[in-house]
Amino acid sequence: MDAVPKEIIPDFESWGISAFTTTREAGTFSLSSTEPVSEVMGRWSSLQRELWERARRLVSIRQVHGTRVLVHTGGWEGWLRAGEEADGHIAAEKGIALAVGIADCVPVFIAHPSGIVALLHSGWRGTGARITTEAIAALARYGLAPDELAMHLGPAICGRCYEVSADVREQLTGQPATRPGNVDLRSLIAEHATEMGVQKITVSSSCTRCDNDRFFSHRAGDAGRQIAVIVAAGA
Ligand SMILES: [Zn+2]
207: CA distance to ligand 1 center in Å? Predict the structure, then answer.
C-alpha cells in the first residue's frame, strides 16, 4: 500500500509518537475546496488505513481561528469530525490520531513521553490570542509539566513571506506599528511556549510559500489544504 506523501517529524519517535504533515503530492484534505468530495474523502480513508496499526481513532476539528482546545478520550472507533468549533485538540490517551488542516498557518505539535499529545492550528489570530499558551496550560492541568514536553512547529509561511497590516502587527507583537511589515508566526509561537517553560522546540525548515511546489499556500492562491497529524501508537 502506498503511504500518503508527507514530511515526517522524527522528534517524538523514541516515545512511540508519530507526527507528519502531508504534502501537495498527497492532494487536498479540505472538504470545502473545489475538488470532488468523493476524492477528498478517499484521501481521509487512505490515511485512516495507514494509521490503523497505530490508532483506531482519527479526529479532525472545525477550525475557526480561535483558541479553544478540545480534549478527546477513547471508547469509540473511526473518523470523528468534531462538530464543536476549536483550533486545538488533545488526545488524553494513546491510539487517538489528531489532525488539523493548514495552508500557511502553523501546525503546532506537542508531545509528552507518556503518549499524551496535542495538535494546534495557529494562524495570526490564534497566535495573537496565544492558543499555544492555552494548550500548554491545559496539559499542565493533566499533570504534564511544560519542561517535560517537546514541541515542533511544522511547515508554515515563513517570516520573509508573511507581510501583515500595521494593525495585525500590533496585535501580534504588542508593539505600536504604523505600517505593514513582516512577522514570523513560528518565532512568536516559540516565544510563547518558552515563556510557559517549554524547553525542547524544533522548527520545520519548510515554508508553505517558498516551498509552494511541495505545500499548499493560501497566500500563494491555493484552495487546497494539507493536514498535520500526530498520534501515539496504542490500541
Ligand atoms: Zn517563505
Answer: 5
Q: What domain range is 19 assigned to?
A: 6-232
Q: How many domains does the chain have?
A: 1
Residue 1 located in a structural domain: no
Find the 230 Cα to ligand 1 centroid distance in Å: 24
pLDDT at residue 1 is higher than 70? no
Binned at pLDDT 50, 70 and 90, residue 130 comes out as very high
Residue list, CB under 5 A from ion ligand 1: 158, 161, 207, 209-210
pLDDT average, residue stretch 86-102: 97
Shortest CA distance to 214 belongs to which of 21, 9, 10? 21
**Contact partners, residue 75, CB within 8 Å, separation at least 6:** none
| Ligand 1 center–CA 157 separation, angstroms | 5
Please report, for the domain that includes residue 123, its CATH number: 3.60.140.10
Per the CB < 8 A criterion, the answer to whether 224 and 216 are in contact is: yes
Rg of the chain, C-alpha, whole Å: 17
182-221, pLDDT tens digit by residue? Answer: 999 999 999 999 999 999 999 999 999 999 999 999 999 9
- For residue 173, the CA-to-ligand 1 centroid distance in Å is 20
Give the tens place of pLDDT for each residue, 12-71: 999 999 999 999 999 999 988 788 999 999 999 999 999 999 999 999 999 999 999 999
Is 229:19 a contact under the CB 8 Å cutoff?
yes
Spatial distance between the Cα atoms of 101 and 132, rounded to a whole number of angstroms: 16
